[in-house]
Amino acid sequence: MHGTWPLRDTLVMVLAGGQGERLYPLTKDRAKPAVPFAGDFRLIDFTLSNCLNSGLRRIYVLTQYKSESLDQHLRTSWDVFSPEIGEWITTRPPQKRMSDDWYLGTADAIYQNVYTLQTERPRHVLVLSGDHLYRMDYSLLLEEHTRTAAHVTVACMERPLAEAAGNLGVLVVGENDAVVRLEEKPSRPAPSPGRADTCLCSMGVYAFQTEALVRSVIEDAKRSGGHDFARDVLPAMVRSGAQVHAYRFPGRYWRDVGTIDAYWEAHMDLVRVQPVLNLYGRDWPFRGETQHGGPAKIVFAGGSPGTPKAEVFNSLICHGAIVSGAYVCDSVIGPGARIEVGSRIEQSIIMDRTAIGRDVRIRRAIIDKDNTIPDGARIGYDIDWDRRHFTVSEGGVVVMPKRVPFPRADAGAHE
């Protein structure tokens, strides 16, 4: 069990207003934190589950862009706390107390909610991103944060230099992991102390002393710029002499699924025999969508001549899904999806309630919710045809948006 302190003195602010342009068209109708993941979850569920499992139960979710889907999910799947005893998950759209602007950046989102911090008066504030995949016990981070008496503690982990270059924020540390410099997506990251091939990368997880946070975002609001923690606030704190501490995350898995290819690759990690991110551990459960529609069903064993045979390998089949005499490999089949006889699904993500007809071929594709794929269709076999009708990522993953008509049969692709 976790101790009650410093958890009882900590307020959580989850940044969940991201537009997620690089995840388009999955973000066409929803904010990035509301994008489905692994069938039964939304991206934000991993951050919120970490809070729940860490003993943190005072949570504000700062929303903005196309928040309807996210709001509904929080109402139906996260109504688990008791406000009468000081627990809650509450959404906070832009308050416009300070100006008429919407949230102008991650730091500005906190700035526009300074009134809440002054009212609640927590000792610490945990600022989290609502769209990263990882498992973290925040109580360990907060214990180190209080032990070091840092103004802000930044969670980080070792990543290869080549992976970080141009993609991730990098911390340069000195004695006792005091941060001496922050580099936002540098082309040539500074290596970790004593390591030539890795660097310390920020995870977008920040534990602040409340007074230091309020002072920093107020000062940032006076300056021009993007009003972002990584680019603006944290470097300014280091320059001013504030105590900025690096917390070395002991886990092995953290992902920012900010692009279609990263999102697809994260799903391919899950269907491995031994994925690094364990969705099944009872000691750290991830809470997701409220389940309806009955258990998954796979029918037709091909036991007699002419009977189609269902084959499913290395895949996640969610509740309410039915696979009828089809081949499914290295794929995620979402809740209520149906795959008919003779179809072949490989390295793909099929989302909720999508109906796939007979003799369909789909590979390296993401099919968003509530679509109907007609008999004989091909997706992922003719890249030029796919580009004319759908979105194709840099890595060649085809994305069909939510609830759209399938192109005419006479424009179909062929294997």
Description:
The chain is an alpha/beta fold and 415 residues long. The chain is 22% helix and 26% strand. The chain contains ten helices and 29 strands. The strands form six sheets. Strands 1, 4, 5, 6, 8, 9, 10, 11 and 12 form a nine-stranded mixed β-sheet that branches. A hairpin with a 5-residue loop joins strand 28 and strand 29 (398-400). The longest helix has 12 residues, at 210-221. 44% of the residues are buried.
Label this structure with key terms:
single chain; 415 residues; alpha/beta; nine-stranded mixed β-sheet; six-stranded mixed β-sheet; 10 helices
Which radius of gyration do the C-alpha atoms yield? Answer: 23 Å
Overall residue-averaged pLDDT value? 91
Largest sheet: 9 strands, mixed
* Share of residues in strands: 25-35%
Cα separation of the termini: 56 Å
Classification by helices and strands: alpha/beta
Number of strands: 29
**Large-scale geometry:** elongated
Helix count, DSSP H or I runs of 4 or more residues: 10
Q: How much helix is in the residues?
A: 10-25%
Low-confidence stretches: none
Task: Describe the secondary-structure layout.
Elements: E1 10-15, E2 36-37, E3 41-42, H1 44-54, E4 58-62, H2 68-77, E5 88-92, H3 106-111, H4 114-120, E6 124-129, E7 132-134, H5 138-148, E8 152-160, H6 161-164, E9 169-173, E10 179-184, E11 198-209, H7 210-221, H8 229-239, E12 244-248, E13 254-256, H9 260-270, E14 297-299, E15 311-313, E16 316-317, E17 322-324, E18 327-329, E19 332-333, E20 338-339, E21 344-346, E22 349-350, E23 355-356, E24 361-363, E25 365-367, E26 372-373, E27 378-379, H10 383-389, E28 391-392, E29 398-400
Parallel strand pairs: 1-4, 1-6, 4-5, 8-12, 14-17, 15-18, 16-19, 17-20, 18-21, 19-22, 20-23, 21-24, 22-25, 23-26, 24-27, 25-29
Antiparallel strand pairs: 2-3, 6-11, 7-13, 8-11, 9-10, 9-11, 28-29
